[in-house]
Amino acid sequence: MKFGSVFYLLGRLLLAITVALLVPTIVSYVRDGPDFHAFLISTGLALVAGLALQHTFKPDGELSLGRHEAFLLVAAAWVTASVIGAIPWILVKGPMFTVDALFESTSGFTTTGATILTDIEAETEGLLLWRSLTQWLGGMGIIVLGIAILPKLAVGGMELLGAEAPGPTTEKLTPRIAQTAKALWVIYAGFTLAEALILMVLGVGMFDAVCHAMTTMSTGGFSTFNDSVAGFDNFAIEMVIAGFILIGGANFALHFQWTRGRPGPLLRDSEFRLYVSLLSIAFVLLVADLLLNRGEGFVGAVRYGVFQVATIMTGTGYHTADFDAWPHFSRALLFMLMFVGGCAGSTTGSVKVARWMIVLRKMVADLKRILRPHAVIPVRLGTRAVPDSVVTSVTTFLILFLSLFAAGGLILSLMGHDMITAFAASAACLGNVGPGFGMVGPEQNYAFFEPQAKVVLMSLMIIGRLELYTILVILFVRPRRWLR
Amino acid sequence: MRIFIVGAGEVGIHIASSLVLEGHDLVIIERNAKKVADLQKSMDLLAVRGDGCNPRLLRKHGIDSADLLFAVSDNDAVNILSSITARAIGAKHAVVRIGNPDMGKNPLVRKDDGITPLYPERLVAEEIVGLTRVPGAGKARSFGDGKLVMLQARPSISAPIYGRRLKEIEGPAGWILAGIHRSSGTVIPRGDTKLRPGDLLYAVGPTETAADYLASIGLESETVEHVVIAGAGHVGAALSRMLIHQKVRVTVIQRGRERAFDFAAKVPEALVLEGNAIDTEMLDEAGVAEADYFVSATQDDENNLLAALLARQAGARVVVALYHRPEFLNLMQAVQIDVPVSPRMMIAGTILRMVHRQEILSMDLVEGGDAEVVEFQVPARARVLKKSLAEMRFPRAAIVAAVIRGNLSFIPGGDFRFEEGDRAVIFTLAEALPQLERLFRGR
After folding, report:
1. How many degrees, rounded to 5, is the angle at CA A448 between CA A445 and CA A450?
2. Would the ipTM clear 0.90, i.e. be above it?
3. Residues of chain A neighbouring B256 (CB-CB closer than 8 A)
């Protein structure tokens, strides 16, 4: 086990976060914000820690990472980022705020969007910007993780999901991933910029436009308003944001293709098609329910239907309506959508469309095999047949996901929270959605949970964000080996 | 002609023995020293030990003055490289045997008109598909991308066609009777010919109205709905694809999880069963009892024979079996396998026809051997271009059954005039062949 290279790379991550921290520091300085010193100190801490790690663990020769190190690095990266990201909050709001700060930061870097802030609009501009920035950076990390790193580690069937991606083909990790990452980040940043500009054209101030653009593309869901996107109260703005949410929920490797003039892969991609179909079906059902059982007008039903379906299925977590007050069917449908997620290779969390596709097709194949026990019926993803090992891996992933959801819900219930709240919070954090139902509904927040519950929820966020296995493999598989 | 053969396998030896007898100048290149020695001893040809892709070797034996090169080894890569090399050095024409259809997509092979790819497995598949396309008929062969078909069929005794002159009988539109085979020999029908019970008819017409034609001679045609294939090799794969294309339900039995999975992945429309085709339970699961056709297409002759017999017992309507070793033909005929098919003999036959007459694209032997169905391509300045069919002295012992022009295929009338590049399907008695060859020869 070479901890050295892991620490060295964490140092590099800290330096990157230092650069990111400079943004709110500068903004705070220019706007003469009250949090300037907090950001300056945070930046300094990150810089020192980063440089120290880089210096201490400078590798002798070439940097090499085995499977063990890669898993450890990925897990440590998100934990480290979350801890560093909490420092400005603690410095501004005091040591009593430590757990809440960690919760907010973790929710940011995992692009969950669950918040403990009771009055968002009362926070400083610097902190609000930093909050949005953590989600944007988290989304960036996820894209590379999902397209370049996890496929290589063959986690939860990830080697197949989004396989049309310009993923790594060579054995050496670094050079190819660096190129892939750069290309994907350009697209990610491009979409973010485009959204911010469009929002500004529609009359949104630059600060709010940039913050929302960053949390839209990362399907994170932090808003600068207490009422989330409803704070704009503007139909056009809601639709623009919904549109970019859907872009963020699609495979970035496919975005890579069509932005280079090859729309074919995106349009032919079976996961993308199912993603669009599921969104459409959910939308129609939701609008019908709102029309029939809530007496909503047609325009209103469409307006709120589109936005809520997009934001919940992709796990963004904005809202434009208090969907927890909607009819039973609408609530149940949205709850189920939390388990869908977007496409593999996107910034979304949860199970993801490709996995559902594989599991459902496996089910159909097994049914057929009852009549013809010797039939060989490959599960297909697009035109390709999915190897049995991947099908098994995906099935296990789904079972594991549901088990973790159940475990999270049970633990929260044990702590004395009602069933809806407990299970909604568990699903919303594990699937990186954000708001849930009951006490964690769209009009509520996570502040009331006791610190222990917050730790449980933070763990769910990170486990869910890193496709379950990345964390579980470290925790449960021969722990002693990791220390060797 | 100076002819090179690469690969002294069964195909190579079969071609060589025929060509040597016809007095061609043969060079055969083979890697196996023992085979080379045997050939050198038994046949009047030059057998060379070496690699058919080796340009030095090819040059040394005069490939630049060769008229033809047959690359017929079992290795696609060797065949392709050998033919490309030979063409580059100066061979006039190369024929390359390709097993895996994907290999035939090699751009160097495609863009060179002097290289003709031959797909034995596809030929076999086409032959079998031809049978299933028009069930009820004894033999069928399609022309012009399958739009026209020639059927061999014996009319029902009860059909109202006997004792009357042909011109008095109104057949289905577009159908022409090209030949009649009877015990006294094959005749070319004329307007006043009368049909007799027991006649075997050769008729050409549009594939889509084949059922009408068969009905007019009192035969009922049943459509093929389900075909069971044992073996998912190249033949099985080509056959499945063609049948699926015609909306026929296909079930494939393949041994080995991996190969079955790969095939199922490639051909999603087929139902693939993993197991052994000589297992009656497996045949039962495949639905052989209700299958219209059972085709055993594995590499193993014994396996094919046994599977076909079991399938027949289980109730398959028609059983087809592939064989590779020549001695299996008699055996299969003895136990009444409906259609024994030999891929190697088919490819050898095709190749020999190419040598005999370059303009003739294909030939089929008609029952009895005194008549043939030949396909001519009309070259520039051929005699046949000068006058219309009625005006020219077209041999009375032959009949133009169909003409394929570009994408069109039709049955010509008396005022029809050939154009360069047309392909003529002609039913002819053997005696008229030399005349036809003169008519269709370019100058």
Report:
1. 130
2. no
3. none
